């Protein structure tokens, strides 16, 4: 499925099978998750995609061919491909363990073709082996929702009372990890979204309510997965002194101005950008140890546009996954 330009539906197209270059794998795609970032690319919020583009950076695929020197995984092995597709290895960020900020980083389904396709090519060094306990469809959302969720949770520090704003693909996984770590989870959904609030409670949240409601107790940290700038002051209001508000999305509507008093008391606001391979290794170790219940809605690949629409209108419980 090809994105030819922003704000136009993806188009089903027959394109030549990609061939793996040096260090690259050719994968038969078994499943690809639909991430909110895909929506931001398709809708033109992120303005510099390669075009035409194959979206998708939560790819689970089987190695069918290997380019020169790509001997990290054997043919037939199942691997996962995340958003971070390539880094330079030479800049100050790459050399200090912060390859997520690499100045020349290339991203899957943005600078490189992704997984809304039957086949995909990926640099073997950025792929992850997938724990056997997850089938293809349930493993796909782990590659971004899970991974970025994990990085955001790490950025929240050791917060005992954790607020999650926007209870979708990432939050439903973070909630389970946070519960496993013994934290209290408070889930904020769109106002009046009783179904998602019930879903959050079922996954162990201590409280669930609308994002305009104050929580019943102060939070030590909040993670914002919803791309809504107005939630930043709302979350600052909900966190106790010393608390952190982590913005986990790649794009957000403008943040309204707010009184300094909301930030006072050593409250912090920070963002989380991309991922490092180390995040992935840590996260998959966790996913092996905590049996995550991954809630998915699958659609055939040709219905990618419908999947994006459902995500946009909040009609996916958990994560949407495309299956070729
Ligand atoms: Zn770099
Ligand atoms: Zn993503």
In words, what does this structure look like?
The chain has 324 residues and is of the alpha/beta class. It is built from 9 helices and 17 strands. It has helices at 36-42, 136-139, 145-155, 169-180, 194-202, 231-238, 260-263, 277-289, 304-312; strands at residues 2-3, 24-34, 53-54, 59-66, 78-81, 84-86, 106-107, 119-123, 128-129, 161-165, 184-189, 207-210, 219-224, 239-247, 268-271, 296-300, 319-323. Strands 2, 4, 5, 8, 9, 16 and 17 form a 7-stranded mixed sheet that branches. Strands 12-11-10-13-14-15 form a 6-stranded parallel sheet, with helices on both faces. A two-stranded antiparallel sheet has the order 1-3. Strand 11 (184-189), helix 5 and strand 12 (207-210) form a beta-alpha-beta unit. Helix 3 (145-155) packs across helix 4 and helix 3 crosses helix 8. The structure holds zinc ion (2 copies).
Name a few traits of the molecule.
324 residues, alpha/beta, 7-stranded mixed sheet, 6-stranded parallel sheet, 24% helix, binds zinc ion
- Report the order of strands and helices: EEHEEEEEEEHHEHEHEEHEHEHEHE
Q: Give the amount of beta strand, in percent.
A: 25-35%
Class by SSE composition: alpha/beta
* Mean pLDDT across residues: 97
The unreliable regions are none
Give the helix level as a range of percent: 10-25%
Task: Please compute the radius of gyration using only Cα atoms.
Answer: 19 Å
The major sheet is characterized as: 7 strands, mixed
Quote the distance from N terminus to C terminus. Answer: 10 Å
Compute the number of strand runs.
Answer: 17
The outline comes out as: globular
Each distinct ligand: zinc ion
- State the helix count: 9
